[in-house]
Specification:
The structure is a homodimer. The first copy, chain A, is of the alpha/beta class. Chain A folds into two domains: 2-271, Spore Coat Polysaccharide Biosynthesis Protein SpsA, Chain A; 276-356, no CATH class. Helix content of chain A is 29%, strand content 29%. Chain A contains ten helices and 15 strands. In chain A, α3 crosses α7 and α6 packs across α7. The longest helix of chain A is centred in the middle third of the chain and has 16 residues, at 118-133. The A-B interface holds A 17, 297, 299-300, 308, 311-318, 321, 323, 325-334, 336-337, 340-341, 343-344, 347-348, 351, 353, 356 and B 17, 297, 299-300, 308, 311-318, 321, 323, 325-334, 336-337, 340-341, 343-344, 347-348, 351, 353, 356.
Chain lengths: 357, 357
Amino acid sequence: MIYALIMAGGSGTRFWPESRKSRPKQFLNIAGPKSMIRLTVERIATEIPVGRIMVISGASHADEIRNELPELNPEMIVAEPWSRNTAPCVALAAYKLRKADPDAVMAVLPADHTIGKEEAFLDALRHGADAVSRGDYLLTFGVVPNRPETGYGYIRIGKVAFSVGPDKVHKVDAFVEKPDLETARLYLASGNYLWNSGMFMWKASDIIRAIDRRLPRLGAAMKSIASALNTIEEADALRGVYQSLESISIDYGIMERADNVVCIPIDVDWNDVGSWAAVVELWPADKTGNVTRGQTLFLDSRNCVVSSNHRLATLIGVEDLIVVDTPDALMVCHKDRAQDVKRLQEVLAEQGYEDLL
Amino acid sequence: MIYALIMAGGSGTRFWPESRKSRPKQFLNIAGPKSMIRLTVERIATEIPVGRIMVISGASHADEIRNELPELNPEMIVAEPWSRNTAPCVALAAYKLRKADPDAVMAVLPADHTIGKEEAFLDALRHGADAVSRGDYLLTFGVVPNRPETGYGYIRIGKVAFSVGPDKVHKVDAFVEKPDLETARLYLASGNYLWNSGMFMWKASDIIRAIDRRLPRLGAAMKSIASALNTIEEADALRGVYQSLESISIDYGIMERADNVVCIPIDVDWNDVGSWAAVVELWPADKTGNVTRGQTLFLDSRNCVVSSNHRLATLIGVEDLIVVDTPDALMVCHKDRAQDVKRLQEVLAEQGYEDLL
């Protein structure tokens, strides 16, 4: 059976002031009328029934996820007692799913990305499940780039291992770091480099074997609590082992080192919604390039992003600004500095604005 | 006796969103902890007792002025039923004051300017009163310029007519329009050009004679209601004549045409607080040139003006912006476009935001 693991551990600092510690990006309606995590569930629910969708989040967000996604099995909403990046999250899900279903296949999906071409994505999910049924492959979905993006890691694909329907399953030569602009242009031109989307598929038993080999301490910790998983002892057991787990990503811990990694290229209008600047791709733009939500009024202003759901925002004679208004905090940021919204969190903490984090 | 007329007819559109039709600039605490009109009264009260200070405003603001300035004689707070620029306002005050005191001398002062050097200003007021006691002079206070300002009209002064204490009282050669930058530089270098501050002094009887001569219809209208002035019939009488009065400034209607105009140069750190950009001169700046009120936090941002009294305003990677936050409207404006805040009012009306005007 195919299951989904939706990873909802994001802290969402880049969408401040709308995102807060208590309300990270996956709970925001940034990509449409519904929260990003709900869109993620609804997108796959025709392929993977809600009863087989697991969500793992930080402990402080589990209740909100249950409220946001009442159709899910509450036992499939799992709280990590400490945040330890994606490798422990994937390991936990794999151990839980394999215990319930030794043949479990899992699609691993972030809770806070968007996909425009949903049918094509579901096709890829189906083909991915077919691919991993043929061997012990660790499959990653690589996004066909449409610009020389310097903000993502890339996957260099090799020869085609086999085909599933129209989808070619490639060997993966390497995972590579975020490139500079010149390198990103070469990657784009070569056709052999795809964006690392953070979406994966594999049999639970195969990723567990990879974890045992590449991250043996993580594997041992999971084995030590295996009997408690899927029982009322689980939460206590997690508290017993989680704090001392190494914080490491599944990309770095497993994918970059494994030799059985394959990749299905996908061209599905994917957006990782990495900062306020990304909503330019998601919200409609007026003819002067302004994209907005809420009440806004522009005078001689261009290429701005404005979210103002609580009062009228007026802009006069400005361009390339991001303006985000909330009841207790306002942010005005140059569009080129959208990544620094994350940095602002530290300044807020230093200046005594913890209540706004 | 010396009286003051404080003209409080301003609509304050340039300080939107803090200023509204119901709350124009003179009621705002832009220049300090108190409203501008209160600062105007307190500035002169040691020289002109509050019982001799008259305030004329639009009808919709008279109640708020009474609340704001309870120490004034309520009968000295006069509501114009229609706004007709400064000439009718001055004429009304002159007729009222002369009726009460045939020897009344009046200082005419805007309600919404600031003066840094208050003692020097009071000296000038005293010397002005002395000057107008010597003849039928229409006296204007001309501000010694400290920059080639293109936003003000100028007064070209001529030879010294006489001295009062250390102050020289000059003949006025001409009132000149707002200059271009090159001309403003010549004016500044010449030493013969002063900013037209809109502050005047004269005997009520002298300005009435000038009005009768230069604006005879205004004079006739005031004469027709003279018996009602300072009585309970006054408000009805004003409603009977005011609507049909020509809307004209005292500068254009009288000062630019009269031949008995004199000028006392003043160097008193005057500011007409003409737009949000002007508060740069009034509020303290931090070392990166940001001037603020309320809760603000800057990351790599320079030379901005921020007023945020209701929530935290954060700015990242921007410069030369004016950000003004209020409970129901937010404005982000390039500093060079501060004059366009006035233009925004029309757009707000067109777009159906009358409730925010």
